[in-house]
Amino acid sequence: MKSTTYDAGTLTRLALLIAMNCVSAYMIIPLPFSMSPISLQTLVVNLVAYLLPPKQACAAMLAYVCIGLIGIPVFTGGASGPGKMFGPTGGYIWGYVVAVTLIAWLKGKEYNFKRFALVGVCIGLPVIDVLGCIQLKLITGMTWEGAVLSGVLPFIPLDIVKCLGAAALARPLYKILGAMR
Length: 181
Known about the structure:
By secondary structure, this protein is an all-alpha fold. The protein has a single domain, classed as Orthogonal Bundle (Arp2/3 complex 21 kDa subunit ARPC3), CATH 1.10.1760.20. It is built from eight helices and two strands. Strand 1 and strand 2 form a beta hairpin. Helix 2 (41-51) runs antiparallel to helix 3 (54-69).
């Protein structure tokens, strides 16, 4: 198996995007009818996928998960630890790992707003929502209808806006982060 090494510019980009994801988890709006709040993480997860190649995007998201698993409060609202990952809303975090990898793989090599937005909305969001909904249902014992009504449907409109925003931000951010090479 080939070993991967990263230069200082790549490590800096990874660290910045991991930090952005950690910070975005604190920017929440709690919803009284849902265990999941609205956060900026969907936007940042898409940015990670749009700005990095697939292996680096996956590595960044796995690093974020590991940071949270060891107890550093980087998950939504300052949560951390295995209890969050394996609790009712942990499926969304697992969804971030899968979604960021798929989006980064399917986005293409050149910036294309329509393609980025389409992949984020049609691939990324369903992956995050399906994994989140499955874990929400299994852990809480609620019905599928209840899990979809409280953990998916209320978030779709704003998540689409966040995907579009990430696709629009990707071009200028790529130029900034690309200068670190």
